Amino acid sequence: MRVLTLTWEFPPLFTGGLGMACYGIVKALLRLGIEVDLIIPTKEEVYFPLRKEEDADSLPLSFPDPGKRKKRGGKITIKEILEEGAIVGAYYTTGERVWERIWERIWEEEPLEAYRKSSSLDNLRQLLSGDHFLFQEVRRYTTLAFGIAKQLDFDVIHAHDWLTYPAGILLKEFSGKPLAVHMHATEFDRAGGPGAEGIHHIEYLGISLADRVIAVSGYTANMLAERYRADKRKIRVAHNAFALSGKEKEKKRLFKEITILFLGRITIQKGPDYFLEVARRVLEKEKNVRFIVGGIGDMQRQMLHRSASFAPGTKILFAGFLKREEVEEILRAADIFVMPSVSEPFGIVTLEAMSYGAVAIVSRQSGIVEVVKNVYKVDFWDIDRIVSIILELVSKPEKLREVSRKSVEEAKKFQWEETARKIADVYKEIKER
What we know:
By secondary structure, the protein is of the alpha/beta class.
């Protein structure tokens, strides 16, 4: 079976959990013998034909246009393309390209009767006609993916998150092949509230027009049914996992004090303001602690100013954006990990923190609480409870060590193979309909 995989992020081009999740899923699918044609946001019309597990790391690329392939000559690697600046990542600016002209070109080249009859496709066209830079990028990616994929042979389309849903919808109409959309996070999660209406509409169209919807947790599946009126009969849950690295995970302290970590986007969804209030209250009663905030986001300046008003010296450190190796370094140093997300579809970073021996305190409003045992599960708003847990762990080092040991052992169980098998079952289900 060959799957056309549409994703906004894939290592080495990623900014968060989506890229790492797609990497883990694709690599595990390849181990199962499923072939993948991967399309990510690129400046040139190239795709990545992945046929064996190691291809997920080397990313061999191909030009669907025979003329360009011949002009390039030989085998081109993603490293070479990156050095040439051809691969541009998620938010490349499209310049003067006009979506209406692009759509008309597609319409003229592929005069499908479905385009003229489908009100859903007309709605999609209107939704992507805005001037916001992100919608411009989605338009560009949709056109890129459409141009590449119509020259490929595949059995199933798999679109990850709303940014690639438009491409998946158009390609389903064009090819007649079944579509699975993967919901890694809804706009309700990201915005911590209503969010952007246009994104909601695109998510709704993707959910409505897909043959199957893959949710990363039961929490997300329930949200799809309640907020988007999704047909429960076509939702399938495939919990996230994480990839064990071969690197040594022995603890390596950065400070002599107990280190408490927040790692994620500094946005309302992730609850950094709750973490900061926890830090303030803990520091009032316990000085043998150090807090680290890893990540960036629109609340960063606000958090910096607030922490400066009460945190003495370097008791609260803001690490900013962290490269992958820096993430691993900071996880190795953490004793306690806190994820106070207001709404979290899953929370892969919790598994990573556990694998490094950090004791995790996680929001009950997250998908990961469905599958893990050796974590503290607390409502994101229950600051008193989080403070109480931290103070108890600091005062009882033997308990901290014991929960840490159990966390490491449990984290080893969550690998991508089980997730990939569930996704492969979805592919088979819709292919044989």
